[in-house]
Amino acid sequence: MLDLINVSYDTQIPNNVGLSQDKKVLKALEKWHPGYINWWNDLIPQNFQESLVYLRTAVSVDPKGWAKFDYVKMPEYRWGVLLAPQVENRTIPCGEHYGQPAWQEVPGEYRNLLKRLIVIQGDTEPASVEQQRLLALTAPSLYDMRNLFQVNVEEGRHLWAMVYLLHKYFGRDGREEADDLLRRQSGSEEAPRMLGAFNEETPDWLSFFMFTYFTDRDGKMQLESLAQSGFDPLSRTCRFMLTEEAHHMFVGETGVGRTIERTCQVMKENGIDDPYDTGRIRDLGVIDLPLIQKKLNLHYTLSLDLFGQEVSTNAANAFNAGIKGRYMESRLSDDHQLQQDTYTVWDFEDGKAVQKQVPALTAINMRLRDDYTKDAAGGVGRWNKIIEKHGVDFELSLPHEAFHRKIGVFADKHFDPSGQPVSGAEYDAGLPKWLPTHADGDFIQSLMKPCYEPGQYARWIAPPKVGIDNRPGDFEYVKLHMA
Amino acid sequence: MTQRIDFQTDPSRYRHWRVAYDGEIANLYMDVDEQGGLFPGYELKLNSYDLGVDIELADIVQRMRFEHPEVKVVVLQSGKDRVFCAGANIRMLGGASHAHKVNFCKFTNETRNTFEAAEADSGQKYIAAVKGACAGGGYELALACNYIMLTNDSSSSVALPEVPLLAVLPGTGGLTRVTDKRKVRRDLADVFCSVEEGVRGQRAVDWRLVDEIAPNSKFDEVVQERAREFASASAKPSGLTGIALTPLDRRFAEDGSVTYSTVEVVVEREAGRATLTISGPTDAAPDTVDALQAQGAEAWILRAARELDDAILHLRLNERQIGTLVIQTQGDGAAVLAHEALLLNNRDHWLANEILQYWKRVLKRVDMTSRSLVAIVEHGSCFAGPLAELLWAVDRSYMMLEEFEGDNRPLAAITLSPGNFGTYPMGNDLTRLATRFLGTPEAVEAARARIGEALEAEEAEELGLVTYVLDDIDWEDEVRVFLEERASFSPDAMTGMEANLRFAGPETMETRIFGRLTAWQNWIFQRPNAVGPDGALQRYGTGVRGDYDMERV
């Protein structure tokens, strides 16, 4: 166990913010740290806490060698506080303060807005760890288990990063908010996480891969927009978080890809050409492609909801204040203020989905979501390549944004995945084809048997092409403690 | 605004609220229909409200008293997830004319006062059960409840974000109730009213912003438990049966005139004047309260109050060019007194009490009406008891003296009742007579000594009950000149002058809300920092901040 009394914050907590000299933050972190460790210990089942996991730890922000790999027990993971290097003479990249020097301290007028954004971002980080807490019990391999834990500890570190900002820049309010980040729990009736999607549990590994691909990608887009913040410490924090987030996308994309790969292999080996011959495919212990499409439909649409309303005052305020930019703001070539511009968003009129021009400022959420959709489409294309390579006649696709929505103009309206309005009866009849049913869930659950032998993989998923840190195929990524 | 705003509604027409009656407890759910705005151009998102939402609430509160006297506790809560109420709809406010904003705020204020007073007046205690965001007008709704419970889920909060977010005030009683009712320390109130996200959890209790927090998982249970406790502690008798508030008998004419069963409104738009005539009862007063209850909404004294109330609201919102309201009565003063006496003699009967309390509210509504009010006391009139209160609610009164040629109606007389000495207090908690005679309290006593007498013009003048008494020779000209002169003054100056002269005497929370808070709010509602093209209210939702002129005025 980590010695909580004698933490040497400069040695135990990799940081490039001069933590040991910063009395204010140290004092706050010292108080917060035990609560965090308790949270972690209560969360992950004990035998995994004791296991040695081959993890990547961020130790610096040097692009050439920012991380090192080693075996570590998760509670002893060195959650660091690392900010990307300061860019000299950085200016505010958007909004009414465009071109002015970036803020190094919190501007009083935006304190609450900034704090709220940081709290919401911070709230999602531990939430996913909570959602995934029992997955290791059914890991399809030690490789996958290690990836799960890597994602978990890094989400933990991202929580640290947000807590650091709260402690450093937001005084007593910030400390209280940091405490509440540990008080809220995913799915808790007492104090649920702030965003709905983070209160759903992640029941199986396909869900986990879909979650890391689609929902963590929302997180990535949020980080991308916060990385454009005129508040420099937030921008630097998020820029560095993005380097880790890339791994989460990787886990999701390859996880789904390996599932598809295995399904196609097994279909071919058994002479099944029809991807809809699901009974036979399932009998062979792999997940049929139509079900993968249904899981995709579910996770993609839940993730779209995370972007909020099509037209949003809060997003407009944050952009105009220079607190939150667009995706790749600095590479865009407009005036970065958008006071006269418009943007096309979907609306719902006379029972139909129509496109409409609205003031660009109010459509900041939608612009980010459109960028998200483009980003998410890339991996879907690569999954289709795998299917194509095996000669299976099936194509995965992203559903229309009107389908299965809980937030925005299409909330609770009846559309099919192609975006066509349908009657309530048609919707009910279509649902089992469009979204996973309880029976689908039972089937996936039946495949979720742990596979803890080094180099071995559960039947439903193909091994990875390369190991983590270039380790060989039979590498023992987790030395399980099975007391 | 060509569409007539109707203040009459009934449960079959509600779009924004539901009530679940559960014996002595009523669960009142706010569940605003986004598409149900009174005007086009905005959606009522996040349980935000406009005048239409408030008209339904006022109807519910009124029916709660008359139709559901068995209810002792009303739990005001949200029918939506994660939001209690986001307050008045900002886009509606941004698009509304100044006059509409002012009228809207006045009506919402009156509705807040009505359910706040329901505990003292009718033994119906409103408690707010807050889950999710409760901001601005949403917290003001809660503030007007007499017990506030907040779920402790580490995100639900109460907030008054008007100043930082919109550059206006929490003007529906918010600022005043924070300091005067909740008695929040002024520096903490200053902090509270400057932070957008508000205050949650234990601090909300510590700062007196709410009465109680409860764990989220047990919240609904604790709320119902508290409701049951309040109900069983209530002194109100159990098992009462209500009466039905049937639809008003009401007809609108082309020229704007409105005819009710006992109230007639004649509108002369050219002259900027409306004459409102209340007819006294034609039937004898019911002998007993049981007979009264059997008459229900048909009872003259309740009917007249409902019709007068509706007429005043209609004129306020729909006839805004009418600057002068002339108030008249016709009928038998003794009969009015008889009808009132049944109520005064049976105050412990729930319906008698409710009708008296309702008259109190209607008369306050008259006090608060920003029009020049004048009472014309003609021969054959019946300014007696509750109707006599109108004489002291108005800005001036003119009374016929002696016989008029060709007029064979009974000579004009005013009759006082015991009701005029405490049953219908004004917002300042004094009777209209006590307010009128603030410097000469003995005049109140002199009037009290004449209870029950039909006081003709000379006596009424001597007692100071009317402004002028005029005989046949002077009458027509004097009244005409007054009305013409009145119609020539600046309506703004009139509103300001009248509002200041009407409310002499001590301040109460109510007078502070309608006076100080409203006046400041209405000033801000005129200032470019809020409502100019670059003001915060206009820019709300665009992402661009209000551009403020930093000069302190």
Automatic annotation (TrEMBL), chain A:
E.C. designation(s): 1.14.13.208
Entries under InterPro entries matching the protein: Aromatic_CoA_ox/epox, Benzoyl_CoA_Oase_BoxB, Ferritin-like_SF, RNR-like
GO CC field: cytosol
Keyword entries, A-Z: Oxidoreductase
Gene this chain is encoded by: boxB
GO biological process: phenylacetate catabolic process
PANTHER family from the UniProt entry: 1,2-PHENYLACETYL-COA EPOXIDASE, SUBUNIT C (PTHR30458:SF0), PHENYLACETIC ACID DEGRADATION PROTEIN PAA (PTHR30458)
Protein name (database record): Benzoyl-CoA 2,3-epoxidase subunit BoxB
Entries under SUPFAM superfamilies matching the protein: Ferritin-like (SSF47240)
A GO molecular function held by the record: oxidoreductase activity
